[in-house]
Amino acid sequence: MKSIRHIGICGLGQMGAAAAVSFKRAGYQVMAWNHRPERLEALPGITATLEAWMDQHMGPAPDPSGTLQTHDDLRVLDEQVDVVLDCIAEDMAVKVDLFNQFPASKDRSALFLTTTSGLSITETGRLSGCANLIAGTHFWNPPHLMPLVEVVRGQDTPDTVIDQVCELVKSIGKTPCA
Known about the structure:
The protein has one domain (6-177): NAD(P)-binding Rossmann-like Domain (Rossmann fold, 3-Layer(aba) Sandwich). The longest helix has 22 residues, at 37-58. By secondary structure, it is of the alpha/beta class. It has an eight-stranded mixed β-sheet with strand order 3-2-1-4-5-6-7-8, sandwiched between helices. The protein has helices at residues 14-25, 37-58, 74-80, 92-99, 103-107, 121-128, 159-171; strands at residues 6-10, 29-33, 67-71, 83-86, 111-114, 134-139, 148-153, 175-177. Helix 4 (92-99) packs across helix 6 (121-128). The chain has seven helices and eight strands.
């Protein structure tokens, strides 16, 4: 299995912020993006609050070497991430447009994960050109606390991708339901 170190999180609402904390606490280098500057500015305060609560109630981070950076340019993420995690609006066209902005990541065979709970993984992958790299990862709310993550295969998603996604989910202390 390929080494995963850099996680690109796109969309910084409740799901994205909590996912950022989960990956950071597991030792990953998190690169967070949002199209709204106020979300980027608010993220450090939000994640600090989540982490303080988790430290107090769940214990210290399993791997304190994780980092969190914010970016307003998707090209920076495209050049570096091993995983693109979409936490944006539940809108097929918006998700496809986002994934289409990651050509270098596709060339590197980065994983593409979408937090959708109702959109077709197959259609999202085919329309965005990453059908063999995509899986659904539906985190349960609140995502930083709930242990389950539903892992959803598209028709074109190979077993190796599902295996990698399940291992990634386990690495942040979650239980994948594939």
